[in-house]
Amino acid sequence: MDLLLKEKAQTFPASPGVYHFYDANGEIIYIGKAKVLKNRVTQYFQNPAGLSFKIRRMVASARDIAYIVTASEFEALMLECSLIRRYKPKYNTLLKNSPGYPYVRVDMQEPYPKFTIDTQRKKDGALYFGPFGGGYTTMTALAAVSEMLQLPVCNRQFPRDIGKERPCLHYQLGRCFGPCRPEADPNDYRRRIEQAVMLFSGKYEGLEAQLKEEMEAAAERLEFEQAAQIRNRLLAVSRFGKEQQTMFLSHERMDAIGFHVGETRMVISVLFVREGQITAQHMETFKIREASEAADLYEDFLKQFYPGRDFLPDIILLPKDFEDRELLERLLSEERGKAVTLAIPKRGPKLKLILQAETNARQEVDRITTPAEKLHFALSELARLAMLPAMPKRIEAFDISNTGDDAIVGSMIVLENGKPAKSAYRRFTIRGQDKQDDYAAMSEMLSRRLDRIHEQGAFGETPDLILIDGGRTHAMTVKRLLSVRGLSIPLLGMVKDGRHQTRALVTPEGEEIGLSGHPAVYALIAKAQEEAHRFALAFHRAKKRKRTLSTSLTKIPGIGKVRATLLLRKFGSIAKIKAADIDQLAEHLPRTVAENVYAYFHPPAPDVAPPEETGEENASDGKDETIQ
User: Fold this and answer.
1) pLDDT digits (tens, 9 = 90+) for 412-421
2) Nearest 5°: phi and psi at 615?
3) Whole-number Å distance between alpha carbons of 553 and 351
4) What is the pLDDT of residues 247-279, one digit of tens each?
5) What percentage of the chain's residues is helix, strand, coil (to nearest 5)?
6) How many angstroms separate the Cα of 422 from the Cα of each of 4, 126, 426?
7) Domains in the chain: how many in total?
8) Beta bridge partners of 406
9) Do 270 and 289 share a domain, yes or no?
10) Against a cut of 0.85, is the pTM above it?
11) CATH code for position 75
């Protein structure tokens, strides 16, 4: 930290204004505004840990600071927005340059108004509809309306080109009513343009009523051909209106903001709602190092996206409040010349619109974030939460599995850079315990693991973090094992809730680290805990099954636990022992014992005398009983 800058900040006035940070080359690298310049700027030098990663880097790069006093905080906001657009400082949130969103334009003051597509909304007295999502979307909408109302789509200019050429193919196919014909009624042309304006304005019901009235009037005049044409337009408008069911009864121009913060990126989504319809969407993506950057990015985005824009809506729907909301609301209202409201809905369709924007932002974050980025973020966030000296590259997680006092086993699974390294997994048979004692079992397993920490090979690698399935007492037990061996390895217990789900991490000192607000870390720890439990449980079941099979073999004369285990190891299963002949068995057993095993699995068929004629059916099914 530059002490000279800290001292200089103390000399700033207690007035509203804008401040600048400069780098060693004299370039402006950051611009901000303040209600009280002295208080705001000195905060950058008082508690660096409370600043976001980006702002900490900015302060470290700064070599000078300056300020401009303004008459009010509102004027400071206007100046800040203007200067950021002008200088584009490195550490301010900068939006991508957009070519603009297309509008449908029509000037009703012309004798023959015509719809065109424009990327800017000018103050020229014309009507503008949109913005739309893109050029193709805009052309598709314009073509649909033109076809419904039989409006021309050619390049002819009216009234200049009336009667100069024969009507084109669109007229012959009934897609255009032919205003280029000398006999065409100019009032009919204007009426159709007005009806198209009603369509773009979402006034479907009003247009249907108007067309129905025209159709009935034509029928009364016995102009049945014209009545049929109007009927066709009415049916087309009715279908179009049903397909374009509005989301809102209100026809206010609205924008809805939603955002989602991912592992390495934040996406802000803006939905443009015009005439009750979502007509377009804008998305802005920002790279982040810390989730704490989100609040500043959200506010900076709003201050840059809206001032100076030509499509300011009536209402901007916000997911959360921010410090300068009222000032920005005033600034936008003055720019537009009529009120712009920044609202934070709590319920109803407007809140649903924000939720839709947030869903779109979340899906975009998921789409652009790679699995490697997600893992890297989870590991770095774990290091930050647990105050580890570095991001853990090798994590070892331990678990105990038993059923009462039977077959107590332990497991060690390894995550390398967040991914399971199954070749490094280890299983432990707990030998020193003849009764259930998780603490003693964990102590035995970790003792055997730590005693081999300096061996050659993968088992000798020192982990960057040890995770154990259990709470503070388990962690304290392992901490003592580390201390007596002179090892300093970070250690955390994985605490579960009543539903056996991962709830938190705990240090040997009893400090809990909650995971509910850190989904990436939660997913990583839950994966480690579940994998350690799965591996331990699989080993436990295998041991129990082997013990059960061994017990069935010890019923054979000459077979004890040692020989039963030997047979299972050599043949692999009871079925393969049963399928072996005496010579194969004798390769591993004395000949007489091999004969006993073979006879056990292949008993002679019993001699059965013919049943006497008693008039009763034989209850036996005739199948041999084989003991497994």
Assistant:
1) 999 999 999 9
2) 85, 0
3) 69
4) 444 567 899 999 998 878 899 999 888 877 777
5) 45, 20, 40
6) 55, 69, 9
7) 4
8) 403
9) yes
10) no
11) 3.40.1440.10
